[in-house]
Amino acid sequence: MDEFTARLKKADDLAELHQRVGFTLWQLQTLEEVAAQYFVLSTQATNGMGEMAGNALLSKARKSTFGGTIAKMAKSGVLDEKLHSKLLEILDQRNWLVHRSLNDSYYALQDYVALLKLVTRIENIAREAMVLMKNIASLAEVFVKDRGISSMEIDRMTKELLDEWATSDAY
C-alpha cells in the first residue's frame, strides 16, 4: 500500500473510531440522565408536587456526577446489589473512556488488532449502557405502577412526549 493510501486508511479508521466514541458517550449520557430521573422519582418526588417542583429536583440531580447518583441510589435502597454492581462497572468503563482511553489506546491506529480490541471495548460499553437504561426504566415503570399509574396512562404520556420531541425545534 502506498503512503497516500495508507494515510487515507488511517484517516478513515480514525473517523470511524471517533464516531463510535461519540455514540458511546451519548449512550452513557443518556444512562446518566435515566439514573438521575429514577433517583428523583424514587427518592424525592411526592404525589401532587407538580411539574415545576419535579423539574427543580431533576435539575439539581443532573448536577451530581454519575458516581454520586449511583451512590445516592444505593444508599437510598432503590438498587439491588446486582444492578448496583453493574452500574459501578459501567461507571469504571465510562471513566476509562473519558479519562484514559486515549493514552491506553494511543497506538491503536498503528495496529489493526489493537484497533479491533478498542472498537470492541467501546461497542461493549455502549451496549451495556443500553441494557442498564432498560433495567432502570423497568424499575421506574414498576415504581409508578405500584403507585396507581396504569400502563395505558404511561403509554399515553410517552406518546405525548415523543410527539412533542418530534415537533420540537430543538434539533
Quick recap:
The chain has 171 residues and is mainly alpha-helical. Helix content is 81%, strand content 0%. It has helices at 3-43, 51-62, 66-76, 81-104, 112-146, 151-166.
Topology:
Layout: H1 3-43, H2 51-62, H3 66-76, H4 81-104, H5 112-146, H6 151-166
Helix pairs in contact: 1-2, 1-3, 1-5, 3-4, 4-5
Largest sheet features: none
> How much strand content do the residues show?
under 5%
**Inertia-based shape:** elongated
Gyration radius from CA atoms, angstroms: 20 Å
Number of helices: 6
Low-pLDDT segments = none
Average per-residue pLDDT, rounded, comes to 91
Distance between the termini: 42 Å
Number of DSSP strand runs: 0
- Secondary-structure element order, N to C: HHHHHH
| Class from helix and strand fractions | mainly alpha
- Percent in helix: over 70%
Query: How many domain units?
Result: 1
Please name the defining characteristics of this protein.
single chain, 171 residues, mainly alpha, 81% helix
